[in-house]
Amino acid sequence: MHVVRIDAAPAYEAPGHHLMEMRRLQGREAGPADTVWLGLSTLAPGGGTTLDGSNVEKIYLVLEGELLLSNGIEEVRLARLDSCRFAPGEARQLRNTGTAPAVVLLVMPLAPATPATPVPAAVAGTP
């Protein structure tokens, strides 16, 4: 078991994020994790991210307030306990257009999934 208290969760910064306080709750510099890392972001009013994609899946869960999320094609407003998944390669943008801070939980893989390499038939023992 690995516990990270919120007051000890390491702060981090990411390009294209503004008016945001971000903390790593599990994984990376917050401690051991095998497949995902967990982050907590507080977005001040007017805060958010640029519209960018990445090669990994991202899952967001709004814990407080409301956020406007976009993939560049559609926008959706999420409220408390609403969640959204962005697929690998899909653009994403988060914006706090309200007057109160918003808090969101982020789950991301530690590394991009790599496609399985087929085993040649001769090696696999098939004719």
From TrEMBL:
- Which superkingdom? Bacteria
Q: Where is the Cupin type-2 domain?
A: 40-107
What is an example of a Pfam family matching this protein?
Answer: Cupin_2
State the InterPro entries in the record. Cupin_2, RmlC-like_jellyroll, RmlC_Cupin_sf
Question: What protein am I looking at?
Answer: Cupin superfamily protein
